[in-house]
């Protein structure tokens, strides 16, 4: 399995495929979270706990199935991943959910992905990597297109919402950076989700002692978000990271709002606007400049 996954860094088509699948999962995950939280179908703490729990269960099952296909017998696999990655995952999921109670979708996206991009660039610079002039142009072009895309929906965020979403972005960047060293993305992602469960247990204890909101719709959305778009999606992302530099991994995530908007055009029959076409062109052009130059 490891040999096959490591080949993603050698074959750009494989990296591209996994990257696009992961970004689609990220976009779908944002939609599910908005549907659940904005309509008050579930409180953010319950959503976070169910999301991580369902993701852990799904990934554990997938790891056991994979192990059974190799060893011809189902057995409990060893716990992979790391406590640090699990903490990053938990912080991201919790802050993301709470922030969206007091911040608009467009503003939240700007803060989240802006924090991810800035953190990834700082990480590269601290490592001693020198970004080429063309890469800086690509980053500025993609980020400008990203801001232009969501600018019409921006509103002044609450201070708490801004801080929480920025923390979520930094935590997700940390989770992404640590994922670049993964040798077994599926097992590591499963381990990270499972290791986050003790923190979820503390949240659940707090939920039981306070008021909480649970509806069938909210629970269903949280489970889908955890099992599919988070659990499986994050495992796919860890595979894609093997063929991406830290800078590339940061900037390609600016595609998530574009994919979400495109989904609205296809599935909700929203009109194609000139601003969407222009912003998408800027983002794609910027990403192309960065990905064609190796850092």
Give an account of the 3D structure.
Helices cover 76% and strands 0% of the residues. By secondary structure, it is mainly alpha-helical. It has one domain. Helix 2 runs antiparallel to helix 10 (216-240). The longest helix is centred in the first third of the chain and has 28 residues, at 44-71.
Low-confidence stretches: 1-7
The H/E string reads HHHHHHHHHHHHH
Into how many domains do the coordinates divide? 1
How does the major sheet shape up? none
Seen as an oligomer or otherwise, the chain set is: single chain
Q: What overall form do the CA principal axes indicate? A: globular
How many distinct beta strands?
0
Q: Count the DSSP helices.
A: 13
What's the end-to-end separation, in Å? 28 Å
Beta-strand share of residues: under 5%
**Fraction of helical residues:** over 70%
Give the mean pLDDT.
Answer: 83
Please give the radius of gyration in angstroms. 19 Å
Supply the helix-strand structural class: mainly alpha
In terms of topology, how is this protein built?
Layout: H1 2-6, H2 12-38, H3 44-71, H4 83-99, H5 105-126, H6 133-150, H7 159-179, H8 185-195, H9 197-209, H10 216-240, H11 246-252, H12 255-267, H13 274-291
Helix pairs in contact: 2-10, 2-12, 3-4, 3-8, 3-9, 3-10, 4-7, 4-8, 5-6, 5-7, 5-11, 6-13, 8-10
In short, what is this structure?
The chain has 295 residues and is mainly α.
Keywords:
single chain
